[in-house]
Amino acid sequence: MRRKRVLPLAALLLCTPALAGTAPAAASPQPSSPQPADPLRILLTNDDGYNAPGIRKAFERLTAAGHDVTIVAPLTNQSGTGTKMMSGPTLAVKHPEPKVWAVDGTPGDSVAFGLAEVFADRAPDLVVSGTNFGPNVAGLATHSGTVGGAVAALESGVPAIALSTGGLAAPDPVTTVNAMGPTVDFAVKLIDRLRARARSGRLLPEGVGLNVNHPVVGADGTGTAAGVASTFQDPQNFLQPDFTDSGDGTWKVTVKVALRPAAKGGDIEAVGAGRIAVSPMNADWNTGPADHAVTSALIAGLRP
């Protein structure tokens, strides 16, 4: 499982009432630079498909916020495809309406096509992937096509945000769709914060993205989150496959939820408490210095 780097970046993003929803105690004023006059150029993708309610709501609200948004997303539902991309020699692409491209491939394929062709003249300022139908916390994030789309952008040096809506106890689909409104409203505030604090024209440090998980709040999903938390990816994978032998060489596969206690400070804990989880992530599989020390001790004295 990819180990997330917990950076001071996320804490910096979450320090004002505009993002947290409720004023933190003893919040100190933060300096900000003037926002650039030009709109951000945003490549919007997802894994639910180019016409899914989450991506359409994101397109509508990001555009209303003044950004120049172009959808480059899968033609069909690609949930759970993770970082898969470029698995075939050809790729069919449709252009069904202005500002919308539908790629018959994965989220990673969509982002790769968007960067190479749709944004061939100049890379977008930001890739937003989502909002996804359901959460992408803990082990779900590792296998998520929504997160995979953001990873494809980070690999190409473009800042990215993965955006998801949902809790561990899945509500009915209508309630989740309703909750996508508050999710995208928060994303607009978050992007405004990134824009105000941009350094050298970049919205995020090189190689760093954000995995944002917004809970479903209220009976109809339109409630306000209890706050915002700077988190990390909980190390557990709570979806466990269960195989039943059919006796004819095939096995029936079902999935069980085996949720362990949430890691303190992790994304599961935050979403479970009704807070928005914002976790920094990177596109590689590197771990921290302590893990490298363990590996060095392990191979000491070994010879080919």
Provide a descriptive summary of the structure in words.
The protein is α/β, with parallel strands linked by helices. The chain has helices at residues 8-13, 17-20, 53-64, 107-118, 138-142, 145-155, 173-196, 267-272, 289-299; strands at 41-45, 68-74, 93-97, 100-103, 126-133, 160-165, 208-214, 228-230, 239-245, 251-257, 276-282. Strands 3-4-2-1-5-6-7-11-8 form a nine-stranded mixed sheet. The protein has a two-stranded antiparallel ribbon with strand order 9-10.
Write the layout of secondary structure elements.
Blueprint: H1 8-13, H2 17-20, E1 41-45, H3 53-64, E2 68-74, E3 93-97, E4 100-103, H4 107-118, E5 126-133, H5 138-142, H6 145-155, E6 160-165, H7 173-196, E7 208-214, E8 228-230, E9 239-245, E10 251-257, H8 267-272, E11 276-282, H9 289-299
Parallel strand pairs: 1-2, 1-5, 2-4, 5-6, 6-7, 8-11
Antiparallel strand pairs: 3-4, 7-11, 9-10
Helix pairs in contact: 3-7, 4-6
How does the major sheet shape up? 9 strands, mixed
Distance between the termini: 28 Å
Mean pLDDT: 86
Radius of gyration in whole Å, from Cα? 20 Å
The residue fraction in helices comes out at 25-40%
Order of adjacent strands in the largest pleated sheet? 3-4-2-1-5-6-7-11-8
Number of DSSP-assigned strands: 11
Extract low-pLDDT stretches. 1-18, 20-37
Oligomer: single chain
Q: What fraction strand?
A: 15-25%
